[in-house]
Design a protein that fits this description.
By secondary structure, this protein is α/β, with parallel strands linked by helices. The chain has helices spanning 17-24, 39-48, 67-74, 111-116, 118-124, 136-144, 162-168, 218-227, 261-273, 299-314, and strands at residues 7-11, 32-36, 53-60, 64-65, 80-88, 92-95, 106-109, 129-132, 157-160, 171-175, 184-191, 203-211, 233-240, 248-255, 274-284. It is built from ten helices and 15 strands. Strands 1, 2, 3, 4, 5 and 11 form a six-stranded mixed sheet that branches. The protein has a five-stranded mixed sheet with strand order 8-7-9-6-10. It is elongated, with a radius of gyration of 23 Å.
Amino acid sequence: MPVTPDRYGYLGPEASFTEAASRRMPALMGAQLEPFGTVHAAIEAVRSGDVAGSVVPLENSIEGSVNTTLDELIRGEPVIISTEFLLPVTFTLMARPGTELPAVQRIITHPVAEAQCRTWLGKNLPDVSVALGSSTSAAASAVATETPGPDGRPYDAAVSAPIAAERYGLTPLAEHIGDDEDAVTRFVVVTRPGPPPRPSGSDKTSLVAYIRDDHPGALLEILEQFATRGVNLTRIESRPTGNGMGRYCFVVDAEGHVGDARVGEALMGLRRVCAEVRFLGSYPRADGVRPPVGRGMTNEDFRDAAAWVEGLRAGPR
């Protein structure tokens, strides 16, 4: 099915952190962006060819992995990660123009935002009531449109992503009100399978390893494939496969590119010991870190070792 190359999806709603990340990604500059209501819908649009790719959250430095995204990568028709992007998570208290901070008595936001801004709210607005909504974007919309709450009165302010203030015509009353100023969310662009970009020296490879059967040392077998080849793992997490109780797979992020000999050989090792290995892509790291390559682990080292073995097999000449 033909794919519109400049049409991308993202996990909605509009004016969310995911839209903010999508609009800041260099790879998506100028692209037509379409919100989807769920991670499943956003990735299914990729699988069906309705969009060239979709932006979804993968993990947060405070909340951890986004399991709905992991499960979509684990199951269903294969897709790959082509780009990652790190977005600092900052929250803004916003209200209708003309509202002053002392007048704020009723706030609406998302439960995660409320949890991450609880200290600031308790210190600066200790007597306000906080209602919980479906999203920070919906909260901002409710304030802008003066949508009444259950008691029939509109909310005075919303805690939302900064992008929502501009989108809904609200005035920021306080910015950077999150309890953790270093909070970051990792977003990825998911596309249909294709050749990865060339190695850059600052890359990450993601994959899913399905163990052949549950036995002592199953995880160790996976880890050894990377450790013996000097490949560092930046993340490993177990998830149920959905094929029965006790059946798990491991989602792995490794430093390096499938084009690097050490990473390629690690994947070959996984292929030998696992029931299945799902390649989720090799792509440039968002942080730009160039990991050190240990002694004996460069591409040249692997080529020299392979040539030596071939010489042994060929015998003296």
